[in-house]
Design brief:
mainly alpha, 4 helices
Length: about 90
């Protein structure tokens, strides 16, 4: 496996990403946007706050909140993958 990986290095494809983990994270999140009833409810509850402030500030706040959510989502996905790899390793060593 190590020889194969050495002969076939990861390039990140068109996304120009150096890490396979980062590549998997980006591809997964692009193809599987998170949406659920609790998220929709929170978005609806937040709407009045955005409407009561100037548009430029509303846009900035919206972008910050969603950037924060995306960062949490990316971190959770990466951690989940790492936990899965550790679980696989433990099972193989039984």
């Amino acid at each position: 496996m190590k020889q194969y990986l050495k002969e076939n290095p990861f390039t990140g494809g068109e996304k120009n990403i150096a890490s396979a983990l980062e590549y998997l994270t980006i591809c997964y999140l692009e193809d599987h946007p998170v949406s659920s009833e609790p998220i929709k409810v929170i978005e609806e509850e937040m709407e009045p706050y955005y409407e009561n402030i100037p548009l430029d500030i509303s846009n900035q706040l919206f972008n910050r909140v969603y950037s924060l959510c995306r960062a949490y989502e990316e971190t959770a996905f990466r951690e989940g993958l790492l936990v899965g790899l550790h679980l696989y390793s433990e099972i193989c060593n039984l």
